[in-house]
Amino acid sequence: AGMKFLLQYVGCFFAFFSAGFLIISTWTDCWMVNADDSLEVSTKCRGLWWECVTNVFDGIQTCDEYDSIYAEHSVKLVLTRAMMITADILSGLGFLFLVLGLDCVKFLPDEPLIKLRICLVSGVLLLLAGLPGITGSVWYAVDVYVERSSLLFHNVFLGIQYKFGWSCWLGMAGSLGCFLSGSLLTCCMYLFRETSSGRFHSAYSLRKGYSSAATVVTNVHLPSSQTATSKMYAVDTRV
């Protein structure tokens, strides 16, 4: 039981921070940051939804949102948005299911098997959340790196060059955390399924045995002077 609680709490810890990292990564503005060291006046970051420029001297930040979501965007931007939003939704649902499945939460306290299945469903959701999260963040980072390398290879200078920033790293970390917590909740928690199932069936058999014994004792102590009609009535009542 102690190991089961430990796995639940460790999985909950990683699920909470992983879902938070994915959400913060999706809605922050530093997926790409300027990599030109000669530009010391400002720092320029690009996110999935807007682009911000921060003055190095006074720290003033100005942001420009991209065009409407229905406007024409690059395939990289559109697919990364879709994958990160999907990862946010799945990881959030996985964390909520995990909270309901914790033994310390007073939800279905008399149904340990159902709570264990809720934890398993949470693990599956977190594993599914890690897949689009890691795909979107790694693909975005690789695309930025390939674009920058091709420009350097062909000696093309466009005034500013980018490398992937902390938002992209945060998306990778959140995705890996989802994989870790999902693995704990599916693979390790599954080991407790047979134990809980065995305890449930043994308890059910024990209750059934007590019920049968009580019926036999009742039948033995029936008074011998009962008439046939009263005996039939007693049998019908027990049925």
UniProtKB/TrEMBL annotation:
Q: How does it sit in the membrane?
A: Multi-pass membrane protein
Query: What is one GO biological process annotated to this record?
Result: monoatomic ion transport
Entry's Gene3D superfamilies?
1.20.140.150
Keywords linked to the UniProt accession: Cell junction, Cell membrane, Ion transport, Magnesium, Membrane, Tight junction, Transmembrane, Transmembrane helix, Transport
Q: Molecular function terms in GO for this entry?
A: structural molecule activity
Question: One GO cellular component from the entry?
Answer: bicellular tight junction
Instruction: Spell out the InterPro entries in the cross-references.
Output: Claudin, Claudin16, Claudin_CS, PMP22/EMP/MP20/Claudin
Q: Where in the cell is it found?
A: Cell junction, Tight junction; Cell membrane
Q: List membrane-spanning regions.
A: 7-27, 120-142, 169-192
The reaction(s) this protein catalyses = Na(+)(in) = Na(+)(out); Mg(2+)(in) = Mg(2+)(out); Li(+)(in) = Li(+)(out); Ca(2+)(in) = Ca(2+)(out)
Q: Which PANTHER family has this protein been placed in?
A: CLAUDIN
Q: What does this protein do?
A: Forms paracellular channels: coassembles with CLDN19 into tight junction strands with cation-selective channels through the strands, conveying epithelial permeability in a process known as paracellular tight junction permeability. Involved in the maintenance of ion gradients along the nephron. In the thick ascending limb (TAL) of Henle's loop, facilitates sodium paracellular permeability from the interstitial compartment to the lumen, contributing to the lumen-positive transepithelial potential that drives paracellular magnesium and calcium reabsorption. Claudins function as major constituents of the tight junction complexes that regulate the permeability of epithelia.
- Family that this chain belongs to: Belongs to the claudin family.
Q: What is this protein called?
A: Claudin
Organism for this UniProt entry: Rhabdornis inornatus
